[in-house]
Amino acid sequence: MAQPVNEKLVDYYRCPAEFAEFSVVGDLSQDSGYFQLGASGVVCYGRSSSGSRADLPLAPLYDTLADVEIIGSVPRLPFDPAEVVENLRLERYVGVADGGKKFASHPWGRNTYYAFRNFLPASWRRTIQKRYFRGWEKLIFPKWPVDRSVEWIMETLMALALKARGLEKIPFIWFWPDGLQSCVIVTHDVETLSGRDSCSALMDLDDSFGIKSSFQIIPEGRYPVSEELLNSIRRRGFEINVHDYNHDGRLYAGRGQFLRRAQRINEFARSFGATGFRSGSLYRNLDWYDAFEFSYDMSVPNVAHLEVQRGGCCTVMPYFIGRILELPLTTTQDYSLFYILGKNSIETWRTQIDLIIEKHGLASFNVHPDYLVERKALQGYTNLLQYLSGIRSERRFWMAVPREVDRWWRQRSEMRLVKQENGWRIEGNGSERARIAYASLSDNRLVYSVGRATETGIAKRAPAEADSPFYAIEVEGLRNARCEVSRAPQSHIYHQIGALITGADYRGLGVVRSLGRRGIPVCVLKRPGHRIAAVSKYVRSSEVWPPGDEAQRVDFLLDLAERKALKGWVLIPTDDEAVGLVARHHDILAKEFCLTVPKWEKLSWGCDKRQLNKLARELKVDQPWTVCPRDREEVAQLQCSFPVIIKPALREAYNPLTAAKAWPVVDRPSLIARYDEARSMMAPELIMIQEVIPGWGEAQFSYAALCQDGRPLASVVARRTRQYPMDFGRFSTYVETIDDPGVVQPSLRLLEAARYTGLVEVEFKRDPRDGRLKLLDVNPRVWGWHTLGSRVGVDFSYLLWRMVRGEAVPELHGGPGGRWIRMNTDFPVAVMEIMRGRLSLGDYLRSLGQPFEPAVFATDDPIPGLLEMPRLIYLFFRRLLPWSGWS
Length: 887
Prior knowledge:
The chain has 28 helices and 38 strands. Strands 7, 8, 9, 10, 11, 12, 13, 14 and 15 form a nine-stranded mixed sheet that branches. Strands 31, 32, 33, 34, 35, 36, 37 and 38 form an eight-stranded mixed sheet that branches. The termini are far apart.
């Protein structure tokens, strides 16, 4: 049963009901048919109270917009828009528009095809399919390549509401979180054993472009589904959904069989931990969806000209079918594009993306791993990923997985705009990500603008003149007045919260890309010598981080917030000095920024190595022998074995010791000389002496996490296999994720005792003398290899962004097998290790043979990598040649 006439507009825009008052004029006809809404030719299907209705959507159709009346401030329509929209979304016109060609209605044809499908060569199947789809291009409705009829209807109603009430603008809740323009999801239906075995490689490919996707798994009959397969997908941050029952084409063959299969499908969904579903070959019977227990479905195409079951929902927005949210498939499937249409490019996909984004819709893709074994399909999909990655920031769309879209759309459906003294406020779960938008008429064209979560009120405007070229509705409702709606070029006004990154080295670059790829605006503060993050295409602007004392830098940040309108932006420091500054001036900076580090009293345990040493002793966490000598005399009398290191208790003030991280010394005279040198740079109480744990990269481990009050929300365990220098590393060059509970337990004890909140890396080294892990250091900030997390499904930067803004953060733990490399430092290190005989050439090449997360190079953001190339050459000669004695 159709909803009341006004509710569709309220549901679509989430605008106050007072602005969506419409009524139906006259008695609706008994018969349903096609008619037109406006001169632009928007096709509707349903009953009407004026004009005629056609059996087929062939021009000319009767234009009902000419019969709109406005009585007072209420538009009166010669049709029920709720009925028309439901007819389109639920495909109730099917059987009329397609001439009755419905493969699903011919069981003998369907059954025969599926009975022999697996025995037919691929070329034969394609011949049969091409013959079946012959003449598809003659179908005129839904409109190829994307049908946006529902969007045009809604925009027409909004324009009528503005015109009838003489309003300057009408507030509504923007379609997507954080004011993003539109949304893109990538999905993979896994149909065969070869497709199942290709899932890992496909995740590597998606990850290489910073894109997460969903995998629809057939639960019965096609291939074994192991828990190992499901866990491998989950660990990497991808999503699992159920794909049909056994993909035999008979899911909807009869009600009784369907109910039995639906029960089993629901059981598989619970077993998989899946909340979404897609049927095989996009077969569907929307009237039977009440038997499913899914949160969302993805089986309804926007235009089904190239699907076995014809039709299409004629919308690019999610919509509810009862309690199930439908995420329509709005683009052509890969198989149809490459093998039915025979395309060798992604121009069709690009055209569809443009049409969908123009209406701020959901661009959903379905690409099968089964077909990517062929070079043409693989190249086409790679080109799509590259294109999406390249336009992501510019077009400002939300790159999500289906469950995130489902969660957001459900939250938005429950939000409401509340009137306050000076404007409007959004209320409801998830409202912190919602934005108030406004629909208005500019030169009689409907335009949108997007503002903040709280905005000022709405203003009145004078009614348009009767001879307006686009509108000619007389305020008192003169019948037969002409009304047309056209769309203005996009000119949105955005006030989106972004991120300010203090640091432009490779650590900052990782943060920039993580947020920028999600359409979050980023500003970078750069220092001399550290500029690669500033040249990333994801950076909106950059500033020079000025020299001076802490007071001057705090003043600079406060001035920058005012000058650049950064109030409320997330401030992310990436080095020890900036972390300490933000922590010590937390109260004043928190007035302008959303901070990602706690106050100094909650942070100092991780920054001051003396406090860390004390905490570790109290918790009985093993650590190397360490001493903080009071003076030179105590150093001279130390009873210790060599080698040892001299390191600073705090690494905030820049000097040769803090830059080097530590100085190794091999005998007492060197120790005294180095201590004297360190004493000239810092107070003696800041100098620590520590034993050196023997061993190389295979003994170095880290526990990295995002914590809240000492509880890890997201984490990975890693081995820092190679570092520079190898004997005592200033930074890692090659890191890989592993499983090692022995690293996790002492880390959890430290973090829980400190009740730490924020990003943190806890470093250990396994002592070969007793086999015990020894605590080396804690980095309470972004660490060098943090982007490795995204390779295994834990994007630390983005999760930090969500946490500090009060958004939900799922508990995640990255699994083993991920690799990270900083090539410009790892290559010289590897060459030196090979020349020393500690690394074989074969082992080095094998370490590069697996997919890895590069620290700097990225196909969607190449300029920072190009900037690193000269540095790679310079460092090679600087580090390798002096060691070898070459000249």
